[in-house]
Design brief:
297 residues; alpha/beta; TIM Barrel; eight-stranded parallel sheet; globular
């Protein structure tokens, strides 16, 4: 059975852009080193937070090669590869160079709204084609379809290289059902910063985090404390960030975390359409909370 390397604090890495809209290589390298130094356990690249739908094929190839070279095996890399055309996803899995990549994160097909059997057959095709371990990604708020616990567990039992699910359904009962009934070797990873603490107390093994882009040291500490069963200090950190969790998503993701990173002097506050920077009022609230928390960076 394939082993799940994606435990603890995973960073849903943003893609920094320059004022002219091109990828900012210097900022990207600065961010990667900031994450690893701050205690990130793995990096999730080219996912939702990376604005991947707005990247060209050449940019995706460059990002993959640059990040593999820069990380150089210091932490595992999980790379997004998904879509709503099963044959196209399978072809991408077969044609991509997976050297230096430790796993694939594959989202439920969006827009098509497949049945549960359709979801099963989609991920079956991906599992059979993938040369690396597969992490499922359930995020009905974006895709328009929820993969039930029953379908997730069916996939987990039938395919040894499906090693985990990033659960962002917001349905704690569903997540708990998966954790309770999952086979050995299959894990649940939180897809929402705000419920990471309670989900770990139920048995999740970590998070793929947005806020971790800006606060890897603080958030990795919370995750590690919770995983060790030291719930009181972990809960204290969780509560410190409650307002930030809300602010990061009020104007969409990754607008909030890019505003935070800009306030920290790490990146330009640039996104690609159809996404736009967060509102000035949100930016001011984020900056005020950072000052109040007295976070050093």
């Amino acid at each position: 059975m394939a082993q799940n390397k994606f435990r603890g604090l995973g960073i849903a890495l943003i893609t920094p852009f320059k004022a002219d809209g091109s990828i900012d290589e210097e900022a990207l390298i600065r961010l990667v080193e900031f994450q690893i130094k701050g205690g990130a356990d793995f990096l999730c690249i080219m996912g939702t937070t990376a604005e991947t739908p707005c990247l060209t094929p050449d940019e995706k190839r460059w990002l993959r090669e640059t990040l593999v070279q820069r990380v150089a095996g210091r932490v595992p890399l999980l790379m997004g590869c998904g879509g709503n055309n099963t044959a196209a996803v399978v072809r991408e899995l077969q044609e991509t160079d997976w050297t230096g990549i430790d796993g694939v994160l594959s989202v439920c097909p969006m827009y098509n709204k497949p049945s549960q059997e359709g979801l099963y057959q989609h991920f079956r095709a991906i599992a059979e084609a993938s040369p690396v371990p597969v992490v499922l990604y359930n995020v009905p708020g974006r895709t328009g379809v929820n993969m039930t616990a029953e379908t997730t567990l069916r996939l987990a039992r039938d395919f040894e290289n499906i090693v985990a699910i990033k659960e962002a359904s917001g349905n704690i009962t569903q997540m708990d059902d998966i954790i309770k009934n999952k086979p050995a070797g299959f894990d649940v990873i939180s897809g929402d910063d705000g419920i990471t603490f309670p989900l770990i107390t139920l048995g999740a093994v970590g998070v793929i985090s947005v806020i971790g882009n800006a606060l890897p040291r603080e958030f990795s500490r919370m995750v590690r404390l919770a995983l060790r069963g030291e719930y009181a200090p972990a809960l204290h950190i969780h509560h410190k960030f409650t307002e930030l969790f809300k602010l990061l998503f009020v104007d969409g993701n990754p607008a909030g975390v890019k505003a935070m990173l800009h306030a920290m002097g790490m990146i330009e506050n640039q996104l690609r359409l159809p996404l736009v920077p967060t509102r000035l009022t949100t930016m001011e609230q984020i900056s005020a909370i950072l000052r109040e928390l007295n976070i050093k960076y």
